[in-house]
Amino acid sequence: MEYILVNHKYNVLKQIGEGNFGKIFKGENIRTNELVAIKVEPIEDNFKMLKNEAIIYQHLLHSYGMPTLKWFGKDKHNYYLVITLLGKSLEHYIHQKGKFSIKLTLQIGVQVINLLKN
Q1: Which residues make Cβ contacts (< 8 Å) with residue 108, sequence separation at least 6?
Q2: pLDDT value of position 3
Q3: Mean pLDDT, each 10-residue run in order, the chain (118 residues)
Q4: Residue boundaries of the structural domains of the chain
Q5: Which candidate, 53, 59, 29, 28, places its Cα nearest to that of 41?
Q6: What is the dihedral of CA 13, 82, 33, 14, to 10 degrees?
Q7: Taking the model in full, what pTM does it have?
Q8: Regarding the domain delimited by 5-87, which CATH topology (the fold level of the hierarchy) does it fall under?
Q9: Distance (Å, rounded) from C-alpha 67 to C-alpha 75?
Q10: Strand arrangement of the beta sheet that strand 69-74 belongs to
Q11: Helices and strands per DSSP (H, E), number in the chain
């Protein structure tokens, strides 16, 4: 990927994930050095999933365990969603450890239930 500066302040560093609707990058605020996640969805695909996700993040503002929406917008080619980078994804740990133990799976499940309760 060529050098991209999103919203004149978020430098795209490297790709950290990919889904059905777009790609996820690790980025950095060039003014504060804060690390962020930048989700990118091509406009031509016409899914508008990131727009819906941005609305959900606005409703979940200040909810425990949820990333904070930093910015949502677009250019000629893509929609961009910038959120706080919480850490490595579960997919990363699956690739690193292989299979999760029953104990770890249950711990993750309890955390998900607690997030849903909040």
Answers
A1: 90, 100
A2: 66
A3: 83 93 95 97 92 95 91 96 92 87 94 89
A4: 5-87, 88-118
A5: 53
A6: -10
A7: 0.86
A8: Phosphorylase Kinase; domain 1 (3.30.200)
A9: 23
A10: 5-6, 10-18, 23-29, 35-42, 78-84, 69-74
A11: 3, 6
